[in-house]
Amino acid sequence: MPSGVDQITNTATIADDESSGPDPTPPNNSDNELTPLNAAPDLTIVKDDGEDVVLAGDTLTYTLVIANVGDQDATGVVVTDALPLELSFISASDGGALTGSVVSWPAFDLDAGETVTYTLVATVADPLPLGTQTIVNDAFVTDDGNNGPDPTPPNNTSSDTDRLPPDLQIFKDDGGVSVRPGGNITYTLSYSNVGLIDALNAVITETVPFNTSFSASGSARGWSCADGAPAGTICVFTVGFFAAGDASDTTFTVRVDNPLAPGVTGITNTVLIVDNGSHGDDPTPPNNRSVATSPIVPTAITLLRFDATKVGDAVQLDWATGSELTTAGFRIYRGSNESFKAADDISGLIAAQGNPLNGVSYRWVDEGAARGTYRYWLVEVALDGTRTTYGPISITAIPQQFFTVYLPLIHR
Q1: Looking at 163, 182, 215, which one is the last position of a domain?
Q2: What is the pLDDT of residues 386-406, one digit of tens each?
Q3: Are 49 and 60 within 8 A, CB to CB?
Q4: Cys staple from 121: which of 90, 147, 249, 408, with CB 3.0 to 4.6 Å?
């Protein structure tokens, strides 16, 4: 229905050919019926930038779709967009211009059933105030009211809301350590929330690396792993609520296997920090993860053999080195089971005699071993006090002085 029409007039008229003379009362030969028109424009507006999570400095393009879903044309239609403090105006289509903090478009007419689309481009402030959680942008449409009030005022307004997510990051540092078999690697894990919104239920996840075990005594309290947890065990440290702008650190320690598998030259470890995502996806996932590789110091000796032999009532232990780099000496440990921790040092320090170019053959006799099954470990002690363990080898005494000796495989 065209604008300005508010009623319909219908006129009925009767007449003859006047062959019998004129009608004596012409006024009653016609009648008018006025019918009020129940029609009105019904304007709607929908605004969307196609984003859910945004960051400081982002450029946003808002699309504003304005429609007249009523049954009468609208006149003097005006569209406005009130920019919040977090947005800076760049441009608007179709003659839109900024006055103060409001973008306005020139008035226009919008026929019933017609739709128009405007765009508005703005940038997110950088930096944003700490604690900013959302950016809310409202747009409005009205007409001049000449065709009656809008029947559904709520849809004359549209709001677009974008969230500012937490931004977690973590860095792992092993302190530049180089480690020997049996030594510890302590990782310092520095983590922070550099976003503008708090993170909920944040957790740090470590996996005990290959060729190591978890050391609870060297780690901060709060890890889910038991002391000695083997390689491949997932360890979780609960951060929980992590406020925007906060930073902290914790430690995670592993013990390198001793003896160490042949060919291992380093220990690589990866850490990850995440939250529950309830405040949006992390905008920079790569810095949620950090990797460190700690080199293994080459063993101070090249061990060629380590043997146990029953000699009378004693056990003779022989070993030979191909080279000795920084070795102070050796110690012999004896135990009755596979646990090195339960074994005893039975030799004291046996001084090293080799050098980097030449190895030496050594012999030490255990005269204190009674009949039974024993396991022997050879421990190389470096000049800096670091120890590397070899073995165990096992010797079993059976009645009638018959012995079975089990020897380890020694890689050269």
Answers
A1: 163
A2: 888 888 888 865 443 444 444
A3: yes
A4: 90
Sequence-separated (6 or more) residues with CB below 8 Å from residue 236? 203, 204, 205, 206, 223, 224
Which residues, at least 6 apart from 16, have a Cβ–Cβ distance to it below 8 Å?
A: 23
Tell me, what amino acid is at 372? G
Task: Report in angstroms the alpha-carbon separations of 135 from 47, 86, 138, 358.
Answer: 14, 7, 10, 73
Residues 254 and 207 in one domain: yes
> Do 280 and 313 fall within a single domain?
no
What are the tokens at 233?
A: 């065990």
Q: What are phi and psi of 40, to 5 degrees?
A: -165, 155
Both tokens of residue 178? Answer: 């180089």
CA 378 to chain centre: 45
Task: Determine phi and psi for 318, rounding to 5 degrees.
Answer: -125, 140
Tell the burial category of 338 from Cβ atoms under 10 Å away from its Cβ (0-12, 13-18, 19+): exposed
CATH number at residue 122: 2.60.40.740
Residues 177 and 158 in one domain: no
**Residue whose token pair is 């190895």:** 359
Q: What are 196-235's pLDDT values in tens digits? A: 889 999 999 999 999 999 999 999 999 999 999 999 999 9
Q: Are residues 289 and 173 in the same domain?
A: yes
d(CA 130, CA 403): 76
- Is residue 3 domain-resident? no
Q: What is the pLDDT of residues 99-113, one digit of tens each?
A: 999 999 999 999 999
| 367 and 387 in a common domain | yes
Q: Say how far apart CA 112 and CA 108 lie, in whole Å.
A: 13
Measure the CA–CA gap between 73 and 42, rounded to whole angstroms.
9
Within 10 angstroms of residue 5's Cβ, the number of other Cβ atoms is 12
Q: Which domain holds residue 270?
A: 168-295
